[in-house]
Automatic annotation (TrEMBL), chain A:
Coiled coil: none annotated. Keywords: Chaperone. The keyword Chaperone applies. Residues 6-79 form the J domain. GO terms for biological process: [2Fe-2S] cluster assembly; protein complex oligomerization. NCBIfam families: hscB. It comes from Nannocystis exedens. Gene3D superfamilies: DnaJ domain, HscB, C-terminal domain. The keyword Chaperone applies. This is Molecular chaperone HscB.
């Protein structure tokens, strides 16, 4: 991610996870007013295209900054690890054997449990999902990008589990 | 392996800053707002910061029925077209908005039209030959886009008659739930109608704009928009001059027309009509609509279908019929609240839009769902056009305190992957404009191209989503498998319209992307239709010229006849031979005007001839007037005065008006 696409830089915010919601909203409104393509209706193609691209970047950065998970993932990416890549050096860290066993166990409990069991299981996984994010944020605050990335990978597994049980729910 | 990264928008900031003269080409105050509705359309103006007003016809109606009659060429639009509907059901088109951006497979509702789809994704309606044309005349096939363009052209002419000059551009509203194909079709219709489309504005956003600015309000609003054929729900926040759509949802094939259909079916069933004829169905639907409207005030009403015994319909019966339809809208409301992360009590107001929100049951259910009485103090039929006019005024460059409108994409954008599974690249309700970038790689060294299929919708499988376009990505360099990396950018602009570009990452070279929209008119076809519309604009111009020439000739004829009647008997003014020439020219002018389709040229020629022949007569009248000491007044006034004086003289002395004449020649 280059400096141009650093959402924190775009919004003049310090590069850390803790962020003021008000500051983000305030800055978003300012940037949006300035960047909106409606400002250049009737101008040449190049100017209109530039405005569309600027506004797109503002909207994309806003989407990342207001979401605690995407914000954490962006910080990890700025720290040199891209969770969307499989590159062994700069890509997402592989989950540990123990973690994969934990996931298999969760899947088995999902298949065995009745409706009540599924609800309880979902609560359990939601808690683990939140805890993984908290742990990632703590690691980021301590400057440990790799450890933060590991927690965020785990969180993605929990999230997918929740998404899948959500879509199969009656 | 592909990587999704919506937030990675690349090196986009160096390109250009908006220039200071950014509004130089625009003409402030000449933007028009158009609500292009399923049943009715409206055009409104709000020039230079003025309050919006809907343009009305001579009978005071602002609603132009969205009906186009192809019984003539060029077609008729509006009320005149509607009057021909019963007689020519397949040539008079209504509710074409439901066909915009659609294919034959999408049309799951009854209609009287002859539809075809030779080009996949492009519907054509066979409207036959104009009435009264020769039997072997070719039948015409029009696309829904062209039909909409005819409506837009009518609205544009109405606005230009009001402005007294060409309009600069237009904001056209679309249901928030319109997908890319439907929006593109609407934008194309605007271009074909000869309009610069500043913006497509979501109807609920337009309504909120009308209310929000009206009240100078800040806060969270829900807009519940139930029109003739579409339903939208939008949640918006107005804060510090920015109108932000938080979530939107709806159903682009659900509206008040469905209420009519449901009631019509019940009426026919209760009358024991098992298999109604086309005429019976039409009559039942008209009766149902009228009954629905009466039931807004009354709790029961009587309905008479032609040739059948009268029936009584209670409001309760009607409400039971529409309850399942109403529940569908409420489900969409709850989903939108969920998408926005809001609960109903957090809202500051609920705005009602669309004629169908007059149904009391709808108001009741909306109040229940949002836990507050809804706002409806701006006419729900006009509020969308108001908002469009305000935004059009802002975008025309007027110095009006504007708001920035941040809209969202209503449906997720995705790519078809292996096995027909959709991979989402832009989630629904993402604020637009927004871009997604996706990196594609080659799987074999000889592979130099690939096909990318873009779809829109929320379903898992590509075949259940709307196919938007297929892109041929060409010119991938010959590299070992997985080494070539092509980054494709999917850009949604402020109208939620998609453009695609690509570059090869190793070289940074832009790749050619061949766009094949799955739906709608190709760029070339739109261009052709724009050219044709310019020809039609020529027709409009010719008609206007002819009308002006007719008025001018009529004025000259009338003035001459008046003069001849008043002073024509004075031979000093009008010698006999000259009089004969004048009478002949007047007769020729009458003959020219007798042809109702006369073009401007013959009318103008008749006028020129008349003016030439009458010139000496006019000169002598002028001299006479000057002699009478009445310089500085118009010839007509002078003659009036002289005639009055003559009459007075006549009365007074029994004299003929010869009194004033010098001497006989």
């Amino acid at each position: 991610m280059s400096a141009d696409t650093d959402p924190f830089a775009l919004f003049d915010l310090p590069r850390r996870h803790a962020a003021s919601r008000d500051a983000i909203e305030q800055r978003y409104l300012e940037l949006s007013r300035a960047a909106h393509p409606d400002n250049v209706v009737g101008d040449g193609t190049a100017a209109r295209r530039a405005a569309v691209e600027r506004a797109s970047a503002v909207n994309a950065a806003y989407r990342v900054l207001r979401d605690p998970v995407l914000r954490a993932e962006a910080l990890v990416k700025l720290g040199g690890i891209d969770l969307d890549s499989t590159d062994p050096e700069r890509g997402a860290p592989h989950p540990t054997q123990a973690f994969l066993l934990e996931m298999i166990d969760l899947r088995e409990r999902l298949e065995d449990g009745g409706p009540d069991g599924v609800a309880a299981l979902r609560d359990d996984v939601e808690a683990r999902c939140d805890a993984a994010l908290d742990a990632a944020v703590e690691a980021l605050d301590a400057g440990e990008v790799r450890r933060a990335a590991e927690h965020l990978v785990a969180r993605r597994y929990f999230q997918r589990f929740l998404d899948e049980t959500d879509s199969s729910a009656p | 392996m592909t990587s999704v990264s919506i937030h990675d928008t690349g090196a986009l900031f160096q390109i250009a800053e908006p220039t200071d003269q950014r509004r130089a080409q625009r003409r402030p105050g000449r933007g028009i707002g158009i609500d292009l509705g399923t049943t009715n359309s409206l055009v409104a103006l709000a020039p230079h910061g003025a309050a919006p007003r809907v343009l009305r016809d001579s009978s005071g109606s602002g609603l132009v029925p969205s009906v186009v009659a192809y019984t003539t060429d060029p077609p008729l639009v509006g009320r005149a077209a509607q009057a021909l509907q019963a007689e020519h059901p397949s040539q008079v088109l209504s509710s074409v908005k439901r066909l915009m951006g659609r294919g034959l497979a999408d049309i799951d509702f009854a209609h009287p039209y002859h539809l075809s789809e030779e080009t996949p994704g492009l519907l054509r309606i066979d409207v036959g030959a104009p009435v009264g044309s020769q039997a072997d005349s070719a039948s015409r096939r029009v696309t829904p886009t062209e039909v909409s363009a005819a409506i837009l052209r009518e609205l544009k002419l109405r606005a230009e008659a009001e402005l007294g000059e060409p309009c600069d551009g237009a904001v056209i509203t679309v249901p928030a739930y319109f997908d890319d194909a439907q929006r593109q079709a609407t934008r194309d219709a605007g271009r074909i109608a000869g309009l610069q489309v500043y913006r497509l504005l979501a109807e609920p956003t337009a309504a909120a704009l009308a209310y929000g600015l009206d009240r100078g309000g800040e806060g969270l609003f829900a807009v519940y928009d139930l029109g003739g054929g579409t339903f939208d729900i939008s949640l918006l926040r107005l804060h510090k001059g920015v109108f932000q759509v938080l979530a939107t949802g709806g159903d682009s094939a659900l509206g008040g027309d469905d209420f009519d259909r449901a009631l019509a079916a019940r009426l026919l069933q209760r009358s024991g009509v098992g298999e109604p004829t086309r005429n019976q169905l039409d009559a039942a639907r008209l009766a149902a609509r009228a009954a629905k409207e009466r039931l807004t005030e009354a709790t029961a009403t009587r309905v008479a279908l032609p040739g059948l015994p009268e029936l009584e319909v209670t409001r309760a019966e009607f409400e039971a019929l529409i309850e399942p339809l109403a529940q569908r809208t409420l489900r969409a409301c709850r989903q939108a609240l969920k998408d926005a992360g809001l609960r109903a009590p957090e809202l500051d107001g609920v705005v009602l839009v669309g004629g169908s929100t007059r149904v009391p049951k709808i108001r009741e259910l909306v109040a229940e769902t949002f836990k507050r009485p809804p706002l409806a103090d701006i006419d729900p039929d006009e509020v969308v056009a108001w908002g469009a006019a305000i935004q059009a005024d802002i975008l025309s460059g007027s110095a009006r305190e504007g708001v920035t409108l941040l809209d969202v994409v209503p449906l997720s954008l995705g790519l078809e992957t292996m096995g027909g599974i959709v991979e989402k690249i832009i989630p629904r309700n993402a604020t637009i404009p927004i871009a997604a970038r996706q990196v594609f790689t080659n799987y074999a060294e000889h592979q130099t191209g690939m096909v990318i299929h873009v779809v829109q919708g929320e379903r898992e499988l590509a075949r259940d989503c709307r196919s938007l376009a297929r892109f041929d990505l060409k010119g991938i360099p010959r590299l070992p498998p997985s080494m070539a990396r092509v980054e494709v950018t999917f850009q949604l602009d402020a109208d939620a319209l998609l453009t695609v570009s690509a570059r090869e990452l190793m070289t940074g070279v832009r790749q050619s992307v061949e766009v094949k929209p799955t739906y709608g008119l190709s760029e070339e076809e739109v261009d052709r239709l724009v050219m044709e519309s310019l020809d039609h604009a020529g027709d409009d111009y010719a008609r206007r010229n002819a009308a002006e020439a007719r008025v001018e000739l009529g004025r000259v004829v009338l003035a001459l006849r008046t003069a001849v009647a008043e002073v024509g008997h004075l031979r000093e003014l009008l010698p006999d031979d000259e009089r004969a020439g004048l009478e002949a020219a007047l007769a020729a002018a009458d003959a020219a005007m007798a042809d109702p389709d006369a073009a401007a040229d013959p009318l103008n020629r008749a006028r020129t001839a008349l003016e030439k022949v009458s010139e000496p007569f006019a000169r002598r009248r002028m001299e006479r007037a000057l002699n009478a000491g009445m310089a500085g007044k118009s010839l007509h006034d002078i003659e009036r005065a002289l005639a009055d004086e003559d009459a007075l003289q006549e009365k007074r002395a029994g004299h003929t008006p010869e009194l004033l004449e010098p001497e006989e020649p």
